[in-house]
């Protein structure tokens, strides 16, 4: 007894929803740590360590300051998870069908690697715009405090490219 047929639209939707939950929620939960890490990378003189970074952030912005960037993190990593988990299954079945049942079994490790890499390619494209906004919010004091402020400002200053400058480093990761 299965909840849906393997390879059906419902199957892909459930896989994608699992990605939203596992990536979006977990990355959002660690926003304070990510915020301090990003600030340490950008300004190591001011943010000397993790504990110092938390202390400086709370002193300057209050406890709410530790949540800066939560919205683009949630949206971006939810989109990445949706694509990563959903497309992995799509590509696994697609490539498996291209190879045939016996070769798909014999070459399953390579097939899973190719499916994973293909899914990650699209997942990073989905993540990049929100990751760009998150980094600006977290590391450029006074630039923007919310996603609603950051997106139009970024687009106005640099156009659509502002949201995709980080996609190649994401692919390299």
TrEMBL record:
Listed GO CC annotations: mitochondrial inner membrane
Subunit field text: Interacts with PPIF; the interaction is impaired by CsA.
Gene Ontology terms for molecular function: phosphate transmembrane transporter activity
Role according to the record: Inorganic ion transporter that transports phosphate or copper ions across the mitochondrial inner membrane into the matrix compartment. Mediates proton-coupled symport of phosphate ions necessary for mitochondrial oxidative phosphorylation of ADP to ATP. Transports copper ions probably in the form of anionic copper(I) complexes to maintain mitochondrial matrix copper pool and to supply copper for cytochrome C oxidase complex assembly. May also play a role in regulation of the mitochondrial permeability transition pore (mPTP).
UniProt subcellular location: Mitochondrion inner membrane
Database matches in InterPro entries: MCP_dom_sf, MCP_transmembrane, SLC25A3/Pic2/Mir1-like
Pfam assignment, any one: Mito_carr
Name of the gene encoding the protein in the UniProt record: Slc25a3
Keyword Repeat appears in the UniProt entry: yes
Source species of the chain: Asarcornis scutulata
Top-rank lineage group of the source organism: Eukaryota
Protein name in the entry: Solute carrier family 25 member 3
Catalyzed chemical reaction(s): phosphate(in) + H(+)(in) = phosphate(out) + H(+)(out)
């Amino acid at each position: 007894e299965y909840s849906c047929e393997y390879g059906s639209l419902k199957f892909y939707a459930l896989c994608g929803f699992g990605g939203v939950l596992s990536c979006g929620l977990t990355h959002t939960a660690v926003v304070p740590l990510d915020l301090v890490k990003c600030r340490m990378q950008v300004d190591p003189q001011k943010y000397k360590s993790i504990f110092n970074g938390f202390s400086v952030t709370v002193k300057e912005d209050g406890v709410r300051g530790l949540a800066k960037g939560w919205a683009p993190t949630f949206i971006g990593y939810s989109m990445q998870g949706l694509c990563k988990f959903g497309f992995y299954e799509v590509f696994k079945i697609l490539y498996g069908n291209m190879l045939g049942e016996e070769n798909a079994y014999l070459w399953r490790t390579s097939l899973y690697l190719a499916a994973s890499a293909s899914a990650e390619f699209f997942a990073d494209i989905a993540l990049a715009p929100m990751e760009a906004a998150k980094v600006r919010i977290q590391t450029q004091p006074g630039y923007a405090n919310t996603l609603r402020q950051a997106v139009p400002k970024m687009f106005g200053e640099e156009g659509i490219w502002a949201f995709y400058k980080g996609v190649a480093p994401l692919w390299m990761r």
